[in-house]
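User: I've been trying to design a sequence by hand for this structure and keep getting stuck. Would you show me what you'd pick, starting by listing the structure so we're on the same page?

Assistant: Good idea, let's start from the same input. This is the structure you sent:
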């Protein structure tokens, strides 16, 4: 069942007018990554269509696949196919409406609202975490009675400290562990984007652009690999990269 939820964005300082004239958080060229996003790619359709209206940005945010379009629309899905669920955002004159398909998980609507805010404002308000409970006030010191006998503390026996090995540094997730579940073709294309290559549109159908991107990362011989083998090789390649290595 499809629901429609209107989310009003009453943002101070926003000029009245079309979303296309508003300053977005990803810049006029949609080449600035959405805050907190990974595997970000800016694309432009030579012939705009309802599915790909001109200029747009796509990537991963919160483990979900997002798209931001220059015509004031955005979408958030579990994966590029969007078969499980999808939230579509349509922004006009400083207000955004959400259309929900399927059953998105908790928190997805908040991320979709941030996408809409990005289309009408250069600043995106972060989602607030659960409040930290206030610490209990320190107890007042108890005054010693004048009649109480002084207490002499005994010196503790000398104990040799036991050396404690330093904790192992937790390794951040890499490769496949950073991607949402998707079909093999889409997974291969998302891994190529994460490795800094451009496989063309993320459509789950590897073509010549995908094969050229694969060869640019793993060498020309990679074009002959089966998709599963190429996915394993790219996963190993990404996880072998230094933590925080830049991607295109």
């Amino acid at each position: 069942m499809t629901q429609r939820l209107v989310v009003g964005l009453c943002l101070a300082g926003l000029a009245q007018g079309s979303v296309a004239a508003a300053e977005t958080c990803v810049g006029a060229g949609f080449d600035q990554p959405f805050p907190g996003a990974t595997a970000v790619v800016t694309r432009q359709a030579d012939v705009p269509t309802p599915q790909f209206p001109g200029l747009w940005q796509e990537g991963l945010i919160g483990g979900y696949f997002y798209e931001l379009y220059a015509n004031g629309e955005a979408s958030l899905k579990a994966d590029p196919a969007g078969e499980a669920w999808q939230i579509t955002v349509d922004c006009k004159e400083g207000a955004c409406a959400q259309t929900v398909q399927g059953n998105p998980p908790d928190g997805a609507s908040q991320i979709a609202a941030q996408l809409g805010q990005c289309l009408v404002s250069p600043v995106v308000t972060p989602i607030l975490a659960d409040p930290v409970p206030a610490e209990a006030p320190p107890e007042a010191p108890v005054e010693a009675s004048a009649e109480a006998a002084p207490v002499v503390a005994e010196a503790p026996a000398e104990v040799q400290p036991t050396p404690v090995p330093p904790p192992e540094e937790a390794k951040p997730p890499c490769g496949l562990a950073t991607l949402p579940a998707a079909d093999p073709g889409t997974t291969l294309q998302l891994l190529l984007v994460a490795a800094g290559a451009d496989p063309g549109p993320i459509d789950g159908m590897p073509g010549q652009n995908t094969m050229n991107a694969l060869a640019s990362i793993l060498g020309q011989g990679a074009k002959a690999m089966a998709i599963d083998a190429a996915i394993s090789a790219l996963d190993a390649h990404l996880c072998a990269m230094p933590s925080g290595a830049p991607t295109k």
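That's my pick for every position. To get oriented when you compare it with your attempt: Residues 1-20, 128-134, 244-248 have pLDDT under 50 and may be disordered. Residues 166 and 172 are 18 Å apart (CA to CA).
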